[in-house]
C-alpha cells in the first residue's frame, strides 16, 4: 500500500533517487495515455502525480502548457532540475485539495491516479478544476499477476524468502494496483462527475533498470531491490539473505535481456473520460 504519507516520505525519496528508472518501466504503457489526449497544442494540461516530470516534459514538447502537480518534494526537485523545467509550472501539493485559479483543458496522469486515501472526494475535486468537456487520460496498472516487474522478482525470491513474504500485492486500497479493476474505477469516476468513461488494455514490454552498471542484469536487480513490491518486503531482511535474493534475481533476469536491458511484460489500462 502507498498513500499520501508514503509519497511525501520514504517512497517519494526512493523513486526520486531512482528517477532514471521510471520512464523505462512506466513509459510503454504511459505512451498510450499521451496518445489518447490527441493534439494538445495550446491546451492547458494538468499532469497529476507528475513525479520526476517525464510526461510533463513530453506534453510540453507536444505543445501543451503544462502544470505538473505532485505531493513529493523529492520528486519535484528532480523535475525542476531538468533542462526544459522552466517551461512548466510545478506545484507541490496534494492533488485532492489544491485549487487552481484557471481551469484545465485536459487532465493527464501516468500511474499517479490511484494513491488517494479518499478517492471519491479527490476525483470530484479534480473534476472541479476542469473546463466543461475537458479531457481525462489516465494510465494505470492492471492486476499484478499480469505484470512481470512484480511477478518475476517475487517468484524468483520465493525459494529464499518463503511464500508469505513473496505473496502477491493487494489489489484494493491506495497503491499501484488500486485501479486494476474497471468495476472499481469506472463507477468512482462516474460518481465524481466524469462522463464517457472508457478504457483499453495496453500490454507492452518494459525495461527495468537503474544505475550505470554496464551489465543490464545488475541494473535490473538494483531496481527491484529498491523499488516495488519485493523491495518493500526486503526492508527487514539481513544482509546474507539479501545476497541470496540478489543471486536468485540474477538467475531469473539473465534470460530476459533484450537490446541491453532486462525486459518484462507489463499490462495497464488507458482510461479516458470527459469532464
Ligand atoms: C508511480 S509514481 C508516477 C510518477 C509519474 N507520473 C511518472 O509517470 O513518472 C506516482 C506519483 O503520484 C504522486 N502522488 C501520489 N499521491 C499524490 C497526491 N495525493 N497528490 C499529488 N501527487 C500524488 C507521487 O508522489 C508520485 O510522484
TrEMBL record:
InterPro entries: Methyltransf_25, SAM-dependent_MTases_sf
Signal peptide (UniProt feature, chain positions): none
Top-level taxon of the source organism: Bacteria
Entry keyword set: Methyltransferase, Transferase
GO molecular function: methyltransferase activity
Domain Methyltransferase intervals: 45-134
Short name of any one Pfam family annotated for the protein: Methyltransf_25
BP GO terms, sorted: methylation
SUPFAM superfamilies the record matches: S-adenosyl-L-methionine-dependent methyltransferases (SSF53335)
Entry protein name: Methyltransferase domain-containing protein
Amino acid at each position: 500500500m502507498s498513500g499520501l504519507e508514503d509519497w511525501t516520505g520514504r517512497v517519494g525519496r526512493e523513486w526520486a533517487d531512482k528517477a532514471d528508472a521510471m520512464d523505462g518501466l512506466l513509459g510503454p504503457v504511459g505512451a498510450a495515455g499521451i496518445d489518447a489526449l490527441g493534439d494538445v497544442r495550446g491546451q492547458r494540461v494538468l499532469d497529476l502525480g507528475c513525479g520526476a516530470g517525464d510526461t510533463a516534459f513530453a506534453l510540453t514538447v507536444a505543445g501543451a502548457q503544462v502544470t505538473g502537480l505532485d505531493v513529493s518534494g523529492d520528486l519535484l526537485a528532480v523535475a525542476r532540475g531538468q533542462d526544459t523545467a522552466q517551461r512548466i509550472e510545478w506545484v507541490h501539493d496534494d492533488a485532492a485539495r489544491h485549487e487552481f485559479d484557471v481551469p484545465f483543458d485536459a487532465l493527464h496522469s501516468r500511474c499517479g491516479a490511484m494513491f488517494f486515501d479518499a478517492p471519491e472526494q479527490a476525483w470530484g475535486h479534480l473534476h472541479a478544476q476542469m473546463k466543461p468537456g475537458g479531457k481525462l487520460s489516465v494510465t494505470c496498472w492492471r492486476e499484478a499477476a499480469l505484470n512481470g516487474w512484480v511477478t518475476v522478482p517475487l517468484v524468483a525470491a520465493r525459494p529464499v524468502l518463503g511464500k508469505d513474504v513473496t505473496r502477491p500485492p493487494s489489489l484494493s486500497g491506495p497503491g499501484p494496483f488500486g485501479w486494476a479493476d474497471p468495476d472499481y474505477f469506472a463507477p468512482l469516476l462516474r460518481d465524481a462527475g466524469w462522463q464517457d468513461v472508457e478504457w483499453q488494455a495496453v500490454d507492452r514490454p518494459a525495461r527495468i533498470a537503474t544505475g550505470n552498471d554496464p551489465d543490464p542484469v545488475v541494473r535490473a536487480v538494483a531496481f527491484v531491490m529498491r523499488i516495488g513490491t519485493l523491495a518493500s518486503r526486503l526492508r527487514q531482511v539481513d544482509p546474507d539473505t539479501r545476497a541470496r535474493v540478489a543471486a536468485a534475481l540474477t538467475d531469473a533476469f539473465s534470460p530476459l535481456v533484450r537490446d541491453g536491458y532486462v525486459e518484462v511484460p507489463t499490462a495497464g489500462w488507458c482510461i479516458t473520460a470527459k469532464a
